[in-house]
Every structure is written in structure tokens, then in C-alpha cells.
Amino acid sequence: MNWLVVSLACGGTPEVETPKEETVEVREDRASLERHIAVPEGYDTVRWVARAKGTVGLGPTDLVLLAWFPADEVDLSVLGDSTGTATVHPDEELARALGITGSVDGATYSTTAFENIRWRGGFAVVADEGLLVELHSN
Predict the structure, then answer these.
(1) Which of 41, 46, 64, 68 is disulfide-compatible with 53, CB 3.0–4.6 A?
(2) Could you read off the pLDDT tens digit of each residue along the chain, which spans 138 residues?
(3) What are the distances in angstroms from CA 86 to CA 8, 25, 71, 76, 110?
(4) CA gap 82, 104 in Å, rounded
(5) DSSP code of 27?
């Protein structure tokens, strides 16, 4: 703040850094996804994205990951029994990067098949077009 007062007192114009818009990289390789989460056998085609959740600060940063598997590769036996039906609201920025707008309606399942020690929670929902999985880092 003091540099602003000195700058203005000397007739200078304060430099304000404009925040850069972050872009989310869409990945399509199973191998890189497997470095983060468990991927069941047979789920070979995937589009996925991840980003920091909230603001980055001191300490660990929470992350959110969204993965889309096409319907022809979804083996429901791997997911177990459906937990019902629901309308889920995926992380808006990540969903938009995958071409998903708004909410997704479908049968819900446990995310256990995709979880590991670092990634848990979120949701797994099967819609007509495929399986959408959202996980959060611990």
C-alpha cells in the first residue's frame, strides 16, 4: 500500500496486474488419469480435467477432477448397485471444458471403483451418453 501512496505522490501511475484467465486442459489418455485415480479395467476411453478448488494459499490445495467415460465402455457391474437416481451439478468450469452444460440426470453409483487414498467423494452418474465421475482430493 505504501508504494501506491509514494507512486501517486510522485505523479506516477500505479501498475495493476490484470488477473490472467486460467484455462483447463482436457486430457484424453487413460495412463495420465491412472496417475491420479483408480480406473477400472475396460474403461479405456476417457476425457478428463482437473483444477484447484477455491483459492490457492498456504497449505495443501484441494483439487477437483471430472472424468467422462462413453456409454459403450461403461460396465455397470464394476460400479455395483445403483444408489438411485439424481440430478447432479458438476463443477461448472470443468464440465464446460468437457462440453457438458448444466446439470446431469441419471442413475447414481458409488465412486469407490475410482477412489484411492488421495481422491474420494463426489459422484458417479450414468446418463444416456456415458458415465460422469467427479472426485475431490483429500
Answers:
(1) 64
(2) 443 333 334 454 444 343 344 578 999 999 999 999 999 999 999 999 999 876 666 555 789 999 999 999 899 999 999 999 999 999 999 999 999 999 999 999 999 999 999 999 899 999 988 999 999 997
(3) 56, 28, 18, 17, 13
(4) 16
(5) B
DSSP 45: -
- At 21, which amino acid appears? E
- Return all residues near 48 (Cβ < 8 A) that are at least 6 apart: 26, 27, 28, 33, 65, 66, 67, 68, 98
Scanning the structure block, which residue is given the C-alpha cell 483439487?
63
pTM (predicted TM-score): 0.79
Contact between 119 and 65 under an 8 Å Cβ cutoff? The reply is yes
Q: Which neighbouring-strand residues pair with 107?
A: 85, 126
